[in-house]
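re: ur msg from earlier - yeah i can do the inosine 5'-triphosphate complex, just paste it... oh wait u already did. ok heres what im feeding in:
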Amino acid sequence: MNRIVFATGNEGKMREVREILGDLGIPVVSMKEAGLHPDIQENGSTFEENALIKALTVHSLCQDIVLADDSGLEVDYLGKQPGVHSARWMGEDTSYEIKNQEILRRLSGTSGEDRSARFVCVIAAVFPDGTTAETRAVIEGQIADAPRGEGGFGYDPIFLLPDRGLTTAELSAEEKNEISHRGKALRQMRPTIEGWLREEKTGVRWKLPE
Ligand code: ITT
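and the outut:
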């Protein structure tokens, strides 16, 4: 085992993951780069279930450490929609320009706290011996009045950080990773990955108790 395979087909996520885990000391590759093209049945009803489904599916195809991210936008006024269905909401092939406009339309006439929303990210890890771990993190914000910014991906142009007066699409990649749901969940997972890598090197895991 000399790499981490990240079980995603989303290039925006992958770009952020590479930056956040770039200094771990082992390569982090996408499924595509690993030559894997699994048919993942993302049919769980929670972020936790879906993250684990993705990681376990890829784990069944390789001997590497596998990580997966299941994430989404919860808009309180919409009963936490699109939530776990964030990628599929209004159809997988519908552009985010259209999805973002639809969220703005549904929230028209609301202001301030009525526009509260959060990004949620669950990271699942499956280690070569089948051990699993999960972390979850959120970033709180509001739905902006109009799309703004060119950075990030997906719902970023309408996700406003009221304290900064900026959407997450207006942050630099570094700034977003510092505070984002994904940045926080991956940093929470980091010690578990480092622990595994250390044990791999020293073989301590296989020592019998004295
Ligand atoms: P994989 O399952 O292959 O990883 P996906 O895009 O289908 O890719 P999800 O099922 O986890 O991933 O859906 C997450 C969606 O939530 C994603 O497509 C975005 O629309 C949204 N999302 C998650 N994190 C986001 C972020 O940091 N910025 C903007 N939108 C985000």
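cool cool. The chain has one domain: 4-202. ping me if u need the other ligands too
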